[in-house]
Amino acid sequence: MSALEYFNETHQMVRATVRKFVEKEILPHVDDWEEAGEFPRELYGKAAEAGILSINAPEQFGGTGEDVFMKVAACEELVRCSSGGLCASLGSLDIGLPPVWKWGSEAMKEKVIPEVIGGEKISALAITEPNGGSDVANLRTRAVRDGDHYVVNGSKTFITSGVRADYYTVAVRTGDKGYGGISLLLVEKGTPGFTVGRKLKKMGWWASDTAELFFEDCRVPVENLIGPENGGFYCIMSNFQMERLILAVTANSTAQLALDECLRYVKEREAFGRPLAGFQVTRHKLAEMATDIKASTEFTYRVAAKIAAGENCVLDVSMAKNVATRCADRVTYDAVQLFGGSGYMRGTIVERLYRDNRILSIGGGTHEIMNEVIAKQMGL
Amino acid sequence: MKVLVPIKRVVDYNVKVRVKADNTGVDLANVKMAMNPFCEIAVEEAVRLKEKGVVTEIVAVSIGPKTAQEQLRTAMALGADRSILVETDEDVQPLGIAKALKAIVDEEKPELVILGKQAIDGDNNQTGQMLAALTGMPQGTFASEVNVADGKVKVTREIDGGLQTVELTLPAVVTTDLRLNEPRYASLPNIMKAKKKPLDTKTAADLGVDLTPRVTTVSVEAPAERQAGIIVGSVDELVEKLKNEAKVI
C-alpha cells in the first residue's frame, strides 16, 4: 500500500466481497424491489452472512472493530446497486447501533449488537419529529421517570427502517428545555404504547421503509437508557459525524455511478449522425462531472482519514457533506439531461439516482444546518 | 488429504484492456487486477471438498510478482489454509509455471492439484496439462464435476459434443471449467482470519527452476472494432448480401 493510498489490502478484499454481494444478491432483483417499494427482509441475513453488517462494530460482539475506510469501501460498493433506498434501509444500523455500542449498558450490548449485525433484528435511529428535525435541541417527545420505567409520549417521523425495525434508538426529552434535557432510549418493537404508522410514500428511496412512530404512555425500562440521562444531545451530535461522512461517500458514489452510466450511453447513442461522445459539448460536460466528483471524493477521503486518526472533524465533515451533495445534485441533474427523454423514464438508472440523490442534502443535517455548523466554527 | 491450488493474478475481468502504444503488450499501468476467474472456481472446489471432509488442508500457490500476495490472501479468505508465493518479475509462461509447480508438488506432496483450465490474460490452457506431464500424474481437464473417493477422483469433462467422465488414480491434476461451481465471496470475518494465515515466499532459485520466457511476443494488436449490423427485409436479401457483399457463401 503506497503512502498515498487510503485503502489497504483488507479494504480491497472487503470491497471485492461487497461488489460480488451486490452483483449476486441485489442487482438481479433491484428493479423489481424498487417498483414493489421494498426488498425482502432475508437480505439482512444474507448481508450479515457476508459480514457486511459487522463493519465498525466492536470485535467482542462479532464486529470488525472500528475501521473507517472499510466502511467507506463497503458503502461505495453498496451504492453500485443503484437503489439509494435499499442502501438506506439495509444500512440503518449504521446510525441506530453505534450509540448502543458506545454508550449502552453491557447487558444491552450483549443482547442487541449480535442480533443486529447478525441480520436477525433491524436497528433504526429516531430523532426527527413532525414539528421539527433540524432543531434537535427542541425536540418534544417526552420521557417521564416513573419508578423503574420511563413513560414516553410523543411521535417521530421520516424514520428510515421505521416499519420493519426491531430496535429503535429514540431521542426523548427527559429534562428541561434545550439540549441539556435530551436522552437516548432503546425502544423495542412491541412495547405497549408504541405503534408504527403507515409506510410513508417518498419522492425517492422507494425500496426503503420510512415511517412515523407514535408513543402513547409507552413504558420503557430505565435500563434501556443509552448514555447518561440528559446527556443525549452529545451522543446524537457525536453520532452525526460518521453519518455525515457516509452521506458524503454516498453522494460521491451516486454521482460516480451516474457518470459511469453516461459514459456508456454517450458512446452508444447517436444524434445528428454521430455518437453523443463525438460532440465537444458532451465531452466537456463529462469532463466537468468527472473533475467535480474527483475533487469531492478526494476531500471526503481526507476527512475520513482525519476521523480514522481520531481528530474532531465537525467542521470538515460538514463541509464534505455539502461539497459532495452539491456535486451529486449537479451530476445527477446533468446525467438525466444527457440521457434526454430516456433519462426521464422509470427503469433508467440515472432517473432513479436523480430522485434518490435529492434526500442526501436534507437527511443527516440539511445543507443549511451544515452551513450553520460551519459558520459557528468560523466564529460567526 | 492435501490439495494444492495454483492461482494467477490477472487483469480484472471487468476491465476493458488496451494495447500499449508500442504494440509490445497490454497496458497494465493502473489497471485493476484480480484472481483469474477459473482459479476462483478451483479454490471454491477445494473449499467444498474440505467442507465435505474429503480434504484436510488447502495450499494456494502463485507464481508472479510480489503483489500476487493479494490474490493469495483472497484465496485464504475463501478458505485456503496457507499459501506460497514464488516471487518473480518475469513475464511467466505456462512451461515455466508448470516447472515451478512441479517443484512445489515435490515438496508438498499433495494428493490433488486443482487449477483453472486457463488464465484470462493469455488464454493458453497449457499449465495443467504440462504439470501433469512433468509430474507423471494423470490429468482430468475442463472439469464440470469432481468426485473424490477411495483414492480416486472421478472427473466429468466438458468436451466438444458432450460430457466425458474419467476416473483418475490419486495423486492427480484437475483443471476447472466454468460450470464446475459458483464461487462464493469471502465473508468479512474470513477476510480478517486470512490476515493471520501463513504466506511463504520463495524464489525460482530456491526451487531450482528457470522461469525465463521461452516464447517471444512479436507484436500485440487490438482486434478490429466490430461494425454495426443491418436489418434485412427478407431471406432473399440476406442471401444476396451474404453472397455479394460479405462474400461468405
In short:
The complex is a heterodimer of chains A (380) and B (249). By secondary structure, chain A is α+β, with helices and mostly antiparallel strands.
Give short descriptive properties of this protein.
heterodimer, A: 380 residues, alpha+beta, Butyryl-CoA Dehydrogenase, subunit A, domain 2, Butyryl-CoA Dehydrogenase, subunit A, domain 3, 3 domains, B: 249 residues, alpha/beta, Rossmann fold, two-stranded antiparallel sheet, 7 helices, 27% strand, globular
Q: Care to describe what's here?
A:
- Chain B: InterPro entries: ET-Flavoprotein_bsu_CS, ETF_a/b_N, ETF_b, ETF_beta_N, Rossmann-like_a/b/a_fold.
- The complex is a heterodimer of chains A (380) and B (249).
- In chain A, strand 9 (270-271) and strand 10 form a beta hairpin.
- Chain A folds into 3 domains: 9-117, Butyryl-Coa Dehydrogenase, subunit A, domain 1; 123-230, Butyryl-CoA Dehydrogenase, subunit A, domain 2 (Beta Barrel); 234-377, Butyryl-CoA Dehydrogenase, subunit A, domain 3 (Up-down Bundle), CATH 1.20.140.10.
- With 380 residues, chain A is an alpha+beta fold.
- Helices cover 49% and strands 16% of the residues of chain A.
- The longest helix of chain A has 37 residues, at 232-268.
- Chain A has helices spanning 9-26, 30-36, 42-49, 68-79, 84-90, 93-96, 98-103, 106-117, 232-268, 280-308, 314-339, 349-357, 367-377, and strands at residues 123-126, 142-146, 149-160, 167-173, 182-188, 194-199, 210-221, 225-226, 270-271, 274-275.
- Chain A has 13 helices and 10 strands.
- Chain B has one domain (2-244): HUPs (Rossmann fold).
- Chain B has a 9-stranded mixed β-sheet with strand order 9-8-7-10-6-1-4-5-11, sandwiched between helices. A two-stranded antiparallel ribbon of chain B has the order 2-3.
- The N and C termini of chain B lie far apart (57 Å).
- Chain B has helices at 37-51, 69-78, 94-108, 127-135, 188-194, 204-207, 235-244, and strands at residues 2-7, 9-11, 33-35, 57-64, 82-87, 112-116, 139-149, 152-159, 162-169, 172-176, 199-203.
- In chain B, helix 2 packs across helix 5 and helix 3 packs across helix 4 (127-135).
- The interface between A and B is medium-sized, with 18 and 16 residues.
